[in-house]
Amino acid sequence: MISVILAAGPVPPDAARRDARSILGERRFRPSHVPRPFAGVLRWIGRQLEPIGRALRPVGDFFQTVGGRVVLGTVVIVAVAAVAWILGTRRSARTRPPRDRTRALSDADDPGALERAAERAERDGDYATAVRLRFRAGLLRLDAAGVIRLGPSSTSGQVARRLDLPVFDDLARDHDLVAYGGRPADTALARATRDGWSRVLQSVGSR
After folding, report:
1. 51 vs 43, 174, 190, CA distance in Å?
2. How many CB atoms lie within 10 A of CB 126?
3. What DSSP state is assigned to residue 34?
4. H helix or E strand, kind and range, residue 63
5. Residue 168's closest CA among 129, 195, 206, 207?
6. DSSP 164
7. 5 — pLDDT class (breaks 50, 70, 90)
8. pTM of the predicted structure, to 2 decimals
9. How confident is the model at residue 37 (pLDDT cuts 50, 70, 90)?
10. How far apart are CA 167 and CA 48, in angstroms?
11. Residues 158, 172: Cα–Cα separation, whole Å
């Protein structure tokens, strides 16, 4: 059903305002009440922080001046530099090998250090370690003399073909059996390894 309302004439202003207030006062035009359980707590916290804010106000006013901005900029630069230095120090500490490890890495490429380690291992009865260390030291001495070019993928077979020395063939066979084949080593084998490398180096030096 369609209702048509005909205006009987002009509405007085007072009546129009009363009608408007009546309509706007209806529930649909009022915002819903939202519970605020923490409002009291937040107001209490705000009151507690007011003295701190008043005490820090002069500091804030100082940093609004030209001198304050200069001081603030200097503090920021120093803080950034300090953080960068700390991070760089920690990174270098993580990437730098420990002192003992650095020494071990350098000793691994020093034939003299390897031979001394082999002698200590032999005195301690660790003959297999003595054989392996002397073999490594011997290869390094051959490389230093320019007889072979030692690389990460070099094998004892390649060195044997390059040298063509029966005494080295025996050394390479014994080393591979001890290092990779699980052959037990004894004092006789350790002594034979020491003597064998002396002969190899003498033979190479006389060429």
Report:
1. 14, 85, 84
2. 16
3. P
4. helix 39-63
5. 195
6. -
7. very low
8. 0.50
9. low
10. 91
11. 10
Residue 38 has what DSSP assignment? T
Per the CB < 8 A criterion, the answer to whether 86 and 94 are in contact is no
* pLDDT, average across residues 19-26: 64
Domain boundaries, the chain: 65-96, 105-205
3-state helix, strand, coil in the chain (%, to 5): 75, 0, 25
Q: Angle at CA 112, nearest 5°, toward 178 and 134?
A: 10
Q: Which two tokens stand for residue 193?
A: 């390894």
d(CA 207, CA 194): 21
Tokens 């063939």, residue located: 169
Residue 54 CA: distances (Å) to CA of 23, 58, 61, 63, 174 = 47, 8, 11, 15, 86
The residue whose two tokens read 């004092």 is: 187
CA atoms within 13 A on the CB side of 207: 12
Supply φ then ψ for residue 127, to 5 degrees. -70, -30
List the structure tokens of 181.
Answer: 């084949």
Amino acid at 97: P
| CA–CA gap between residue 123 and residue 74 (Å, rounded) | 64
Q: In 136-173, which positions are buried (b, 16+ CB within 10 angstroms) versus exposed (e)?
A: bbbbbbbbeeebbeeeeeeebeebbeebebebbbbbbe
Q: State the Cα–Cα distance between residues 66 and 72, nearest whole angstrom.
A: 10
Residue bearing tokens 């020494």: 103
**Residue, of 90 and 70, whose pLDDT is higher:** 70
Residue 140 Cα to chain centre, angstroms: 33
Determine the Cα–Cα distance for residues 35 and 203; give it in Å rounded to an integer.
98
